[in-house]
Amino acid sequence: MVSIKNLQAFIELAKYQSFAEAAEKRHISQPALSSAIKKMEMQLGGALFSRSTRSVKLTPEGASFLPVAKRLLDDWENALYDVKQLFTLEKGLLTLASMPSFAEGRLPSLLASFGYAQPNISIRVHDVVMELVIESVLRERAEMGFVFEPEEHELLNFYPMFNDEFVVIMPPDHALNVGAELTLDDVIKYPFVSMNRGSTTRKWVDEKLINGDRKINIAVEASQFSTIGNLVYSGMGIAIVPSMVQKQMEAKGCISKKVLGLDIIKRVGLITPKDRSLSFAAQAFIESLKLNP
After folding, report:
1. Which residue from 95, 207, 224, 240 puts its CA 20 to 30 A from 261's CA?
2. HSE toward the beta carbon, residue 271, CA cutoff 13 A
């Protein structure tokens, strides 16, 4: 393989057409330059220069190769420059995944703070349900993700950020919107708007509400909390949701209340893969969050 140093030597000699001048520009001896050119010619299979006692000129083959050599050298130098920029955070891409509930609530302010500090880092966000956030991180579609703490996953690091206590939401004119404290027996009497079966949050809610002879009436299912909020406000039923979407639900016109005995409290945080190194941009973002595993 032709080395970068020999490529540089070839370009310098083509430029100055003098071993003495080219060697001086390369800061090497003339014999070293001559050896580099001869080695390159052997590797390529023919003469690149025609030499005489008075001059050094490109052969037709050498002249054809010169623009290619310059392009290869430019590509090499640009590649090195780009990598240096990545390491100095002057350029880069941070790809992360997040549950929509976190993406709509807390994530924008975190990204804004990081973006102000690192304006040359591009950020890409995949807002998908918790299960797909985990899958995205494991399958390298995202470097990190914001989720409820995974119940079992040996391949992930988890950086806790805060605890989230689930609450009930309802339309303003609902019968439960009274001053008295609510219990599980109170809410179980009414139709529910619920997350789709198979979701982790649906499993947590079902485990609490379905106990003994208690059964829940699922009026409608959805895959996003924003849709659930709209359905609740329209009167389709009540819903159990994480408190981090409470402001979002109230903005839709819903009322939120705590439920005695519900006790669904889950940690929310950041996940990263255990078996992969993170980019400098990802490392800098985690440092900006001041998180500890």
Report:
1. 224
2. 29
Can you count the helices (H) and strands (E) in the chain? 12, 13
Same domain, 201 and 256: yes
Residues 278 and 241 in one domain: no
3-state DSSP of 167-209: EEEECCCCCCCCCCCEEHHHHCCCCEEEECCCCHHHHHHHHHH
Domain that holds residue 130: 92-161+267-289
Last residue of a domain, one of 87, 106, 127: 87
* pLDDT tens figures, 15-56: 888 888 888 888 888 888 888 888 888 888 888 888 876 778
Q: Are residues 261 and 172 in the same domain?
A: yes
Over the stretch 216-267, which tens digit does the pLDDT of each residue have?
A: 899 999 988 999 999 999 999 999 999 999 989 999 999 999 999 899 999 9
241 and 97 Cβ atoms separated by less than 8 Å: no
CATH of the domain at 58: 1.10.10.10
**Residues 237, 231: contact at Cβ < 8 Å?**
yes
DSSP state of 128: -
Rounded Cα distance between 163 and 275, Å, is 27
Are 100 and 16 in a shared domain? Answer: no
Q: Total structural domains in the chain?
A: 3
The secondary element (H helix, E strand) that includes residue 287 is helix 280-289
